[in-house]
Amino acid sequence: MADSADDVTVTRSFPSPLEVLGLAAALVPFVVSAARADVTQVDGVITAAHYRDWVALGGGVVAVTVGVITFARRRFVHEHQRVLPVVLALALVVLGAIQVLRGLGRIGSAPQVGDRAALVGPVAPPPPPIDPVAACDAGDAVQCNQLGLAAVSARAWADAATRFQAGCDRGLGLACKNLGMLSLRGDGVDPNPVKAATLFARGCDLGEAEGCFQLGTLRADGVGVDRDATGAAGMFARACELGLPAGCFRRAVALDDGIGVPRDDVAALALYGKACDGDDARGCRNASVMADRGEGLPSPDPARAMTLLERACTLRLGQACSELGGFTLAGERVAKDATRARALFQQACELGFGEGCNRLGVMAEAGDGEPADRTRAEGRFAEACEKGGGAGCANLARLRGGLPGQRALYERACALGTGSVCADLGMALVSGKKLPRDPERALALFVRGCEVSEPVACRNAGIQFFKGVGAPRDKDRSLALFVRACQLGDQPACKELE
């Protein structure tokens, strides 16, 4: 008859050499290590870490394995000793698991994401400070440019020019551009736009976008070089290609108005958009105007126009905030909201855009969304006039009694580009009713009004040149002024041309 399970013969002693090995494998990694850590840090903080301690990892695996074997072989020891293999097996499994976690860096002193990098090991000593003068003298163009900028801050113009020249000679386009600005402004020397243009061209050739842009501006204005609208547009295009939003904006203006290049609404809108993407608020605002008119698009897109105008205002373009306030007050393209409109006009005014202050004055005078207050309105109109808002000057003059006493304010309004005031003031000087007759001054006011696209001013200037009033008779100029008035929508001028 076979033996029962209770009569199994003992075949081994306890503990066995294998179990001694397992216990050693579980304990040795506490005193012996072979750790390796690879970490990535940003500003001294660990953002990623890869850690391995192969002694702990290997010892842990051995200990867990022996623990499992010990537990399986517990029945081969004397019955009264069987509790010991169970305890040892459990201890080996627990200690082995701890060693595996230590080996993987999950517990213990391994570097963790979020730790200061100094915890990983000794901090390398900082590099020795750079001597900018020695570095520049040794050929470091960047350090030469930095020295030049420091000299500009100290108004040490001669030293600045020397350092910028050194940087430019060593091939740094930015230094060439900076030296060009010194020459253009005449900082410490007589202004030399010809030299400035040469330096800007050198900077542009070296890939400095600002150099291209400044050279384009000189070509557009005919300063230091011959006036060249086509060449200017080319320089603005190059500046745009080099990543300068202002270059994209000026290239877009050229395409929008057909200055030096064929007019192209689609390309202009795209470049205004690119300028806007580069945080050029003027690009956003001009793209808004084109989208509202449907220029460069299959049809007008008011929603897109308002989004772009909002963006321009967010970028702190006072004109955009004022225009957005106008739409909001009128309820055009956006919901009507006098409170928000006032806030937008206030923002425009604070950004130095006079028309925003003027619109606040109009609201205060009319009591639009607030109690009417003539005194507050007058203060807003005065602020608008001070900040270059011609309409504010005209409204201030009206509140203070108008002509003849407030002629200076009306003259300022015209000079600031309020074309309707130019036309009205010119008519007062022609008629002699509120002011002494002065046909010469009246003609100058009409011409100024025409320059800012006031059609009535163009027509009146055309009449005076045709009759020889206030200036010698000039039929050709008269005809050009009538054509301009008609183009601006003045029907009497159009009838005269039939």
Defining key terms:
single chain; Serine Threonine Protein Phosphatase 5, Tetratricopeptide repeat; disordered N terminus; mainly alpha; two-stranded antiparallel sheet; 25 helices; 498 residues
Structural notes for this entry:
- The chain has 498 residues and is mainly α.
- Among the domains are: 5-115; 316-416, Tetratricopeptide repeat domain (Serine Threonine Protein Phosphatase 5, Tetratricopeptide repeat); 419-498, Serine Threonine Protein Phosphatase 5, Tetratricopeptide repeat, CATH 1.25.40.10.
- 64% of the residues lie in helices and 3% in strands.
- A hairpin with a 2-residue loop joins β1 (35-42) and β2.
- The radius of gyration is 41 Å and the shape is elongated.
Ordered list of secondary-structure elements with their pairings:
Elements lengths: L16 H11 L7 E8 L2 E9 H19 L10 H21 L28 H6 L3 H13 L3 H13 L3 H13 L7 H13 L3 H13 L7 H13 L3 H13 L7 H13 L3 H13 L8 H13 L3 H13 L7 H13 L3 H13 L7 H13 L3 H10 L7 H9 L3 H13 L7 H13 L3 H13 L7 H13 L3 H7 L1
Helix pairs in contact: 1-2, 1-3, 2-3, 5-6, 6-7, 7-8, 8-9, 9-10, 10-11, 11-12, 12-13, 13-14, 14-15, 15-16, 16-17, 17-18, 17-19, 18-19, 19-20, 20-21, 21-22, 22-23, 23-24, 24-25
Q: How far is the first residue's CA from the last residue's CA?
A: 136 Å
Number of strands: 2
The secondary structure category is mainly alpha
Query: How are the strands of the biggest sheet laid out side by side?
Result: 1-2
| Shape, per Cα inertia axes | elongated
Low-confidence stretches: 1-9
Strand content: under 5%
